[in-house]
Amino acid sequence: MSCRRMALLSGAMAFALISSAAASDFGRAASPDEIALWDIDVRPDGKGLPQGSGTVAQGKEVFAENCAACHGDNGVGGIKDRLAGGQGTLASAMPVKTVGSFWPYATTLFDYIHRAMPYQAPGSLSVDDTYAVAAYILSLNGILPSEGKLDNHSLPEVRMPNRDGFIPEPEFSRSKK
Amino acid sequence: MSERSGREVGWNRRKFLATATTGIVGSAVAGGASAETLADVPAREPGTDLGALSARSKYVRIGRIPEAGPGHRNVDPADAINSKAPLQKLVGGITPSDLHYERSHSGVPDLDPSKHRLLVHGMVRKQLVLSVEDLKAMPAVSRIAFLECTGNGWENWKKADGNLTVQNTHGLVSTNEWTGVPLKFILGLVARDPASTWMLAEGGDAAGVARSIPLTEEIVDEAIVAYGQNGEPIRPAHGFPIRLILPGMEGNLNIKWLRRLKFGDQPWMTRWETARYTQLLASGKARQFQLRMETNSVITQPSGTMQIRPGYNRISGLAWSGHGKIAKVEISTDGAKSWKEAQLNLPVLPKAQTRFQMDWTWDGKPTKIVSRSIDEQGNVQPDRDSFIAAMGTNALFHYNAQQTWSIDQAGRVQNVLS
């Protein structure tokens, strides 16, 4: 088929072009300082978490000011995603997926709030306020006590109720090391 | 498209009046058969001036439908999270750029390409900052590929609303030509550490949408950092100035407004790959990293809310598979009792939508029509019962069950489950 020949040809061309270029031809070296500005991702093992801490009590205030308008008081009943409750519903006809019932990693909560929330002004919360509001959302789900706190060491240690609730696709698990 | 092939049904008229994007007939062209004889055809006359851009004919009514979630259609654009392509009005295999479906997680950012940068870092020997001009100076490839939102088909998980068009049920898939730099070329530039098995791709939108991408041989070979869409710079809604293209994989992996590629040795478990784009099974467990879009097809003509007449009808539709080329499409006009092979229109490209068609003489009796596709790997699009038996009704994503349209005595075409 001509389509197959074309695919092979363009593949061969790409390969030939790749082997002839050097890094110095394109772009410039990234400096450590500018990488640090953009390097916001956080892994389940805590890698990438910035130094800081916050308490459930502080988080309650941060939440009321920045989050409750969309997510509702106590993370329930808002116009956007419900954040609390739903544990035990996942196998029912009306599953309620929340941070407490569904999210497998607490580190994801920090990463997501830090990068994407509040919706109108992502990145506007300080690192300490981000730990605090994450702590508050975990407390709403009974995962942290009301006098609890979180920092960059304790957050990766939080075990989420649905931690074992996921089945990774075999085809794409091989590249996990 | 012949005027015989379908027209909007009367009982849907109120809905039509409320919806600018709905056509008068099944085809995209408004106005009826008002020229009875050649004498009625208007005389030739000099046309309008030539311009820098060509617009659609004023007789063509075609548009996407923004929605806020399953069943929340025709919403205020400020509340929309996606916008669906008018599959019932498209012909051929390529989706016009402005009709390509869209899923944006925090609006469409206004990015100045002169200030946009791609940071490539992590487990690489040379951490680089690349400008859009840098990318355009690199060797380029072009590829025609479908993109499909992971949520395409989400209207029909639990029930079938009989008022839905194929735009409502399947409008989150489109096919464009994408041009850009092979990811493999960039991997060579930065000298990726061979121990790096995952790549984080992050967008420059407010949400900073980020996905972990497994660096399989297939993905490394086929991924493109694209700046071109159907021969022009990518449209803002689709990722201007640059986006990732991963043919055959979940739409949301094809990160728009791409600004960062980071190499690592395990997935980051972002919100989108844990809380969002995972498939909740009946057991309460969820499938994760189900990244490939499945073997799929849908009849677009005739389809939901159209009306056909007894006699000759041409059935046409689109088939696609994240596994490769479409090998065969079969159509049943008797509710999946018997099947006939449809004609595939050329070219049939890997991981691109393929147009199929078949002639059919309708005897005027109520029936059901349905298509099923088979790809070159032998994957068969499942019937709804087997699909639901495997996935349950809570998964929300990766719906690829066969789509059935029922036809009643009056020729009215309706969305049904099977």
Low-confidence spans of chain A: 1-21
Order of helices and strands of chain A: HEHEHHHHEEH
Shape of chain B: globular
Tell me the quaternary state.
Answer: heterodimer
Overall pLDDT score of chain B: 93
N-to-C span of chain A: 38 Å
The CATH architecture term of one domain in chain B is Alpha-Beta Complex
Say what the CATH topology of chain A is: Cytochrome Bc1 Complex, Chain D, domain 2
- Could you give the count of β-strands of chain B? 27
Poorly predicted runs of chain B are 1-26
Q: Based on CA inertia axes, which overall geometry of chain A fits?
A: globular
The amount of helix of chain A comes to: 25-40%
Topology-level CATH name of one domain in chain B: Sulfite Oxidase, Chain A, domain 2
| Arithmetic mean of pLDDT of chain A | 89
Task: Specify the CATH architecture of chain A.
Answer: Orthogonal Bundle
Please, what is the CATH homologous superfamily of one domain in chain B?
Answer: Oxidoreductase, molybdopterin-binding domain
GO molecular function, one term (chain B): sulfite dehydrogenase activity
EC number (chain B): 1.8.2.1
InterPro entries (chain B): Ig_E-set, MoCF_OxRdtse_dimer, Mopterin_OxRdtase_euk, OxRdtase_Mopterin-bd_dom, OxRdtase_Mopterin-bd_sf, Sulfite_DH_SoxC, TAT_signal
Cofactor (chain B): Mo-molybdopterin
Describe it for me?
Chain A is mainly alpha-helical. Helix content of chain A is about 40%, strand content about 5%. Chain A has a two-stranded antiparallel sheet. In chain A, α3 packs across α6 (about 125-140). Chain A is globular, with a radius of gyration of 22 Å. By secondary structure, chain B is mainly beta. Among the domains of chain B are: about 115-285, Oxidoreductase, molybdopterin-binding domain (Sulfite Oxidase, Chain A, domain 2, Alpha-Beta Complex), CATH 3.90.420.10; about 295-415, Immunoglobulin-like. Chain B has seven helices and 27 strands. Chain B has helices spanning about 15-20, 130-135, 165-170, 185-190, 215-220, 270-275, 385-390, and strands at about 5-10, 65-70, 70-75, 80-85, 100-105, 115-120, 130, 140-150, 175-180, 200-205, 210-215, 225-230, 230-235, 245, 260-265, 280, 285-290, 295-300, 305, 310-320, 325-330, 340, 345, 355-360, 365-375, 405, 415. A five-stranded mixed β-sheet of chain B has the order 7-6-15-10-11. In chain B, strands 8, 9, 12, 13 and 14 form a five-stranded antiparallel β-sheet that branches. A five-stranded antiparallel β-sheet of chain B has the order 22-21-25-26-27, with no helix packed on it. The chains are: A mainly alpha (about 180), B mainly beta (about 425). At the A-B interface, α1, β1, α2, α5 and β4 of A face β6, β7, β8, α4 and β10 of B. β1 (about 30) of chain A pairs antiparallel with β7 (about 130) of chain B. Chain B: It comes from Bradyrhizobium campsiandrae.
